Fold Nuclear receptor 2C2-associated protein.
Amino acid sequence: MPLEPLVCARTATRVSSVLNRDVKHFGKQHLFDGSAETCWNSDQGTSQWVTLDFPRPVKVSQLHIQFQGGFSSQLCTLEGCRTGEELVKISELYPQDSHAMQISFQVEETVLDKLKITFGSSTDFFGRVVVYHLGVLGERL
């Protein structure tokens, strides 16, 4: 079965922070807008994250991500759960410090309603992370 994008208009998205609280220019909506001109830019801090609450259960298979070089995460921890359960670690990914789209992250297929991606070990001295594109692919159940 072909993989499909799992994030839709009804997916509730939260982020750890937004640079200077400037949601208009750097907010979470830019993670999925498909524009090469916009991005989510976190504020400074040691651990940044994104959570996705899907409107119905999904089986996540792949993660596609495009950072701004110099503002990448060297370690991404994926956690997930079903509604009403505690988050459980699914896997760790090790992205490159690059502006290129990184699409090779296969995720251990897990059925979940909520996904949390934690960006640890930022390449930026202040801990900021800049993401131009985030794609979560898999199957809607």
